[in-house]
Design goal:
Radius of gyration of chain B: 14 Å
Oligomer: heterodimer
Low-confidence stretches of chain B: none
Mean pLDDT of chain B: 94
Strand content of chain A: 5-15%
CATH topology of chain A: Four Helix Bundle (Hemerythrin (Met), subunit A)
Largest interface: A-B, 34 and 33 residues
Strand order of the largest sheet of chain A: 1-2-3
Mean pLDDT of chain A: 92
Strand content of chain B: under 5%
Order of helices and strands of chain B: HHHHH
Low-confidence stretches of chain A: none
Structural class of chain B: mainly alpha
Helix content of chain B: over 70%
CATH class of chain A: Mainly Alpha
Helix content of chain A: 40-55%
Number of helices of chain B: 5
Shape of chain A: globular
Number of strands of chain A: 3
Largest sheet of chain B: none
CATH architecture of chain A: Up-down Bundle
Distance between the termini of chain A: 26 Å
Structural class of chain A: mainly alpha
Distance between the termini of chain B: 18 Å
Chain lengths: 154, 126
């Protein structure tokens, strides 16, 4: 997708996140935080020239894209050089990341890693785990917003 | 995961969805996938199509043989979860137009999955 589309999506995810509580809504909070960050990450990767800003969408299959026909709405499968990533490191990128993007990716990985135990699995978060998630989200967003030069809610 | 925990998580995610509205269409669609997958797994376990130790994560990644069996036993639930997954490509990872309508459609698919799970429980006398 294009950078502007990623930033718009980030803002909607971030707004949704503000309505959710990491304790009572933890499954959707974690998932929404991860999606918000992945959109900012894609925008930052495109802006930095590490991935291509293409009019294609990542599918559920790593490295497989869907290319839209904007007139008909039809989608066609496509395999091409990395455009959007599905998650940090999926697909793997040949080009080195900047330090800010590497730090953001590490923070995003913390959120992605809690999907298995807390979202798909039966583990219940503690007060400290929710605080850790908020901190990782803020770190990821701050790093990527600095790369992109965009402002987010305070 | 056992049925009780699937149900607990599906119902909590549905309560979380209730604080969002269709303008947050990406988060709504993702939430329907998360909650819907729990209802879908309850149905898979009840039909003995997957054990509680092997939940399906995404319906499209089930083997072709399993999908054929699932299509026979729980066709409307399979169609509903497939539609939610398709909406994720077009409106979550993609920027096709009419996102709020896509979110409403995803919520309708989630309702189908919830109702199918409830109907299955009635049949089983649970």
């Amino acid at each position: 997708m294009k950078i502007d589309a990623h930033v718009e999506k980030f803002r909607r995810f971030d707004d949704a996140l503000a309505r959710l509580r990491p304790d009572a809504d933890y499954e959707l909070w974690v998932w929404t935080a991860m999606n918000a960050c992945v959109n900012l990450l894609n925008a930052a990767l495109h802006r930095s020239g590490i991935t291509d800003e293409t009019d294609s969408f990542h599918t559920q299959v790593e490295g497989l894209y869907a290319r839209p026909d904007r007139a008909s709405g039809a989608l066609t499968d496509a395999v091409h050089a990395p455009g959007d990533v599905m998650h940090a490191g999926q697909p793997a990128l040949g080009t080195a990341r900047t330090e800010a993007i590497a730090r953001a990716s590490s923070a995003l990985a913390l959120t992605a890693h809690v999907r298995e135990p807390y979202v798909r699995g039966g583990q219940t978060p503690t007060a400290s785990s929710a605080a850790d998630w908020r901190r990782a989200y803020r770190m990821c967003v701050d790093e990527l917003c600095s790369v992109l030069g965009v402002a987010v809610r305070g | 995961m056992n049925e009780a925990l699937h149900r607990l998580k599906a119902e909590r995610i549905e309560r979380s969805l209730a604080v969002l509205d269709p303008m947050h269409f990406e988060a709504v669609i993702e939430g329907t996938m998360l909650a819907g997958t729990h209802w879908f797994n309850i149905l898979l376990h009840r039909h003995s199509l997957a054990p509680e130790t092997a939940d399906a994560m995404h319906a499209e990644f089930m083997s072709q043989g399993v999908r054929r069996k699932v299509g026979l036993h729980m066709a409307s639930a399979l169609a509903a979860i497939d539609e939610i997954e398709a909406l994720r490509t077009t409106h979550v990872r993609g920027d096709m137009p009419n996102g709020p309508n896509a979110a409403r459609r995803a919520l309708a698919c989630l309702a189908i999955l919830r109702e199918e799970a409830a109907r299955s429980a009635d049949v089983a006398g649970r």
